[in-house]
From TrEMBL:
Topology class, membrane: Multi-pass membrane protein
Main location (coarse class): membrane
Protein name: Phosphatidate cytidylyltransferase
Superkingdom: Bacteria
UniProt keyword Metal-binding, yes or no: no
Localization of this protein: Cell membrane
Transmembrane parts of this sequence: 9-26, 59-79, 85-103, 110-132, 138-156, 177-198, 204-224
GO biological process terms on file: CDP-diacylglycerol biosynthetic process
EC assignment: 2.7.7.41
Keyword tags: Cell membrane, Lipid biosynthesis, Lipid metabolism, Membrane, Nucleotidyltransferase, Phospholipid biosynthesis, Phospholipid metabolism, Transferase, Transmembrane, Transmembrane helix
EC class name: transferase
UniProt keyword Glycoprotein, yes or no: no
Species this protein is from: Streptococcus danieliae
Amino acid sequence: MEKELQNRIVFGVGAAAILLALLWFGGLPFQFVVGLLAMLGVYELFAMKGLAINTPEGMLASLAALLLTLPLENYLSFLPNDSNIPLFVLLAMGILGSTVFVKGYTYDDAVFPIASSFYVGYGFHMLVRAQMSGLDKVLYALLLVWATDSLAYFVGKRFGQRKLLPQVSPNKTVEGSLGGIAGALVVTLVFYLFSGATFGGKNFFLVLLLAILFSVAGQFGDLVESSIKRHYGVKDSGRFIPGHGGLLDRFDSLLFVFPLLHLAGFF
């Protein structure tokens, strides 16, 4: 157990250092890596369902997630801004078209790869857009989610009594969830005091309300991933990260938080 914990810490520190370096430099290296992560997320969802990724729908879903993630207008100047969604729709139509040409391939079969690629691709797309807007936006989201997860774990372990949603995640408690919100508020207060530009001049009380919303969204994203894993009878989304489970186990909260940051006008 001690060696497993050491491996987890070493890998976690190394991965954090690489991520921060990529965030700092941005551009093609960062966007390329995030695109690969989106494709890996689709692979994990396919693996949880017991589907092969090297099938036409698997390859189309992976490509759809990649095209949805990248800022395509930066590389293909003839494309209009926000061309990701139209291109994603075209690939989704291609997957739906399989119901016409492939015997026994139904609408229900087609919905899974489309939903999987959108779920992963759009969240990572918003991560890319946040980084392009400013490093502080990404750091705020990362630290808010980290504080939410950490405080929810420690407060829940020490004071947790009432189960939050035992049918989805038996170990999560109401007390832990409130502790996670408190952690998000602390991070938000620190950013407001020392990096106020992150919030674009928003009213202090509005910022606090948004922080609560982001924390709840992050926890909900974690619950969604737990629900998916429970449905498919797996403990982790994958084994990509030693000691940490799969990619989606680490990014499930952020996939829900970044779109809300965009909707709230942070970038």
